[in-house]
Write a structure and sequence with these properties.
heterotrimer, A alpha/beta (498), B alpha/beta (441), C alpha/beta (249), A: 498 residues, alpha/beta, 10-stranded mixed β-sheet, 11 helices, globular, B: 441 residues, 9-stranded mixed β-sheet, 19 strands, disordered N terminus
Chain lengths: 498, 441, 249
Amino acid sequence: MPAVQETVDRVRRIDVDQYRYGFETLIESEKAPKGLSEDIVRFISEKKNEPAWMLEWRLEAYRRWLTMTEPTWARVHYPKIDYQDLYYYAAPKPKKTLSSIDEIDPEILKTYEKLGIPLREVAILEGVEPPPGGEPSEQRKIAVDAVFDSVSVATTFQKELKKAGVIFMPISEAIREHPELVRKYLGSVVPTSDNFFATLNSAVFSDGSFVYVPPGVRCPMELSTYFRINERNTGQFERTLIIADKGSYVSYLEGCTAPQRDENQLHAAVVELIALDDAEIKYSTVQNWYPGNSEGLGGIFNFVTKRGDCRGANSKISWTQVETGSAITWKYPSCILRGDNSRGEFYSIAISNGYQQVDSGTKMIHLGKNTSSRIISKGIAAGKSQNTYRGLVTAHRKATGARNYTACDSLLIGDKCGAHTVPYVEAKNSSATFEHEATTSKISEDVLFYCVQRGLSQEEAVGLVVNGFVKDVLQQLPMEFAVEAQKLISISLEGSVG
Amino acid sequence: MNVVLAKTDTGRAVSTSFAFARERLPGSGKVAEQRRQAFEAFERAGLPHRRIEDWKYTDLRALMREVLPLAASPDTTALSRAEAALKLHAIEGTRRLVLVDGVFAPKLSDLGKGEKGFSVRTLREVLETGDGALQGELLASDNSDPMIALNTAMATDGVVIEIANGTVLEQPLHVVHVASVGTPAAMFTRSLFRLGRDASATLVESFVAAEGTEAYQAYDSLIVSVGDNARLDHLRLVEDGLDAFNIASAAVTLGAHAQLNTFGMVSGASVSRYQPTIVFAGEGARVDTNGVNLIKGRQHADTTMFMDHAVPHCASREVFRAVIDDRAHSVFQGRIVVRPDAQKTDAKMMTRALLLSDEAEADNKPELEIFADDVTCGHGATTGALDESLLFYLRARGLPEREAQALLIQAFVGEAIESIANDSLREHVIAAAQRWLEARA
Amino acid sequence: MALLEVKDLQVRVEDREILHGLSLTVNPGEVHAIMGPNGSGKSTLSHVIAGKPGYEVTGGQILFRGEDLLEMEPDERAAKGVFLAFQYPVEIPGVATMNFLRTALNAQRKARGESEYSTPDFLKKVREVSKSLNIPQDMLKRGVNVGFSGGEKKRNEILQMALFEPSLCILDEMDSGLDIDALRIAADGVNALRSLERAMVVITHYQRLLNYIVPDYVHVMAKGSVVKTGGKELALQLEESGYAQFEDA
């Protein structure tokens, strides 16, 4: 049997049921009644003790949402979502007011432990070796905000961050404690009217993370949010807002998992990033929502709006994503390059297997002078999945000196999957220089044979090739995440990758 | 929602125009029924606009606003003006077939003496008296595209060329569409070109305007089938008047081991859109397609190409070059689809745009849709101005600015033009490009 | 009258001043070498004389046979007889070398009000020169410098120098990237073009090139101006003592 045939057969048998985060946590929770109405919006707002302006903002979004229709342009197909058959609010029932991490429901703590996310203030993600020649591990700290269903259950290292002047807290708290910042920036990148899913999020978001880095401050540690959907039939709508004030720097990581269930679950998040003059934000995601089983049953519908605004001169926003989960992925982390000399980057690995459908990419909108952007996208399709890169690069008439480089490569494993590339390249002035390249290929039989001849197993050989294929992007991830992501890639392609 | 839009003034105007034109459109019975259905499809959709993905960059509702009434059959003045225009656009060594204002002009055409294996008829003739199967094929186009549907409904005339199996046609055929209208009007043509098994031929199409022609809209649709092992060289030159619209489509089907070489150049028309669909129906076929836009002023030129790899072992190459000056706008949308069983497909597409002015605009959408794994597919797109270091090198060697630019532009479009196999046709195109560059200097 | 007079030239690139008051006089028939460490402004000087965009002349002047060179477009300067042999000649895909040579030569002649070369004369001349420079005929059919080796690119520059017959040749780091054989061929080509009417400015980092092209004058440039001028023996001194003495100054 030719080398590749064996791989293909293994992929056919592939078992997405091996999802390792598919367990359920049994805890008591508090839910709003099913369905969506003004009353539910009011209920959520009230649960969060929100000020009146916030409720008004939500209601306006809700009313707008009623007039909108679900977008259909993406290459994803899914049964119609009944928005009245979902819970819009679920929270672990608090036994009493928490004063320390020890008072969190031990079941929840156990959950995060199983996921490898330390809520106790340990210095580094578990199971990660310090990088060879890298910094000693005590030096590397990651502050975690853990979001369980609709609410934030713990945020670590708050004190240490506070000393540096960095605000890192659940957005529900920020609305109460820093209303001036939230009011100024919330919805300023993704307006409430932006798109169907973002508008829905604006009406019903229950929690998420808020970050503010003051002028000139380099955030002393990686910030991270870990999202976990636990409840059945629950939509998760988190909202993240990150502001890097003049000359500041922050690196932010996001991870997601959900239990294995036969029903689909909706996740519609909004992330807004704002970088002022000379500021830099690095945003990394490892998305590993439950992808559904090998028959295409269950899995998360992931409709996410992520956008960064390089508002100031010389600012920089960099998105890195490793997308391995979700039944449906619909997300386009974008950059608005408004400030002169600002820079946007998008590095993506999107892996689809089983019946997963991915439609993901980016938008680089060049508005300021001498702005530059770079897009590196690696799509890997296996099983019966469909994997689409969709990207827009556009230079406004006044965006003189705009530069973009795009490379999107697709790798097909097996002959029942699809890999697609839909780039839009728009230049409205002559000083814009755009370069775009795309290739689609399969793993070369010659390369596999070479590796096997040198003693590697079939799976190791495929792993080697896939790792080589995604290397450019993995390098962009912070070390701890890169290791995790690499493991994840292996698991996602289990059966074909060692 | 579109139903409502069809009730706009534009919709009514075309509606009246269709009712009025009906009398003059060839064919009855089933042909008339196909036309009626097509017209209804157009009416439902109306003129395409930017919210329709395929027309995102060419919003006809904004650019064109209305479909002009059907042009009258050319009278002697129109014909003599057309004849004068033909002298300017003649290509030596070709056999000419001429359509004036959308109507076949036998006196200006060279119909030959009925050589073996080669037949030319007019669309009118075929729709009125031809066999039903051929009539069906001629009007069977996809009504989901409103502009093709409109063409189906209104097609007045055209040429139906059939080349028998094994026939090698040495002399290129030159189909010239001349606009010569005295009042603003629209012309609708549809032609068919069938190349039999093992046959080969060269087809040239030109779109030109006679001196003193009023604003016009040319709607054309071409159906091509290339038989097994056959080879077609196809050249398409849009040199319409600068206030004209040229909205055209082509549906090409390739047999096994067939070869198609196409070259298209747009230098004329205010707004043009060419929408070829190339379907690989037999294994081992190869397509080389090259396109050049040379546009300036406020010209808008759109090429939207669909390469459908439906069967295994086929190859396609697309090279597209746009040179855009002033406030002109060039659009290239290239879609390559590789169907699930089309293994061993080798498909590549390269599009490059050269912006000569700060207000020029280039939109590129090179799309890959791949459903088979054992394929080599890729595309590239670049956009930019002339390379400053090359310009300086040339100027340091004594070339004035415009001349240096012209040399680099020639080199830029040269790669596409070099693909033309026939020497005299290539020379003709080089001369046309040269004229454009000289007019610029 | 001097052929080239550079007087107190001050040049900026973006916000940085590269040349701070540089002066140089070159008479017909002379060969001047300009030596200096990297970043001393040697290439900037050659670019400004040829008229490359991106440099801002903030003071001083450049006269060519008494005419203000800075007022002229790059192609006018070429037609007047200024030739720059580039350190890194660009590749121009799609423009055949032969076509390029003829177009450039005729453009210069036209600008000077001379008749264009006839095709046979032109071909004859190109063949002659290319033969002496070891340039194969098929190289002339390819795109300008496309796929040429370093040595071939430099020889192509000298071929153009021979064809265009300029009165001032500026050779910018002609030796960079050449092995000793390639360097000898190139230098022989240059020496063949030395004449009483023609002046040369040879810009180089190393003394090596000057073994082949022997200069009448050697100028040392450091930090944007000429710091020392001498005869050909100055180059040999530099070979021993290096540039450090000038850089510290």
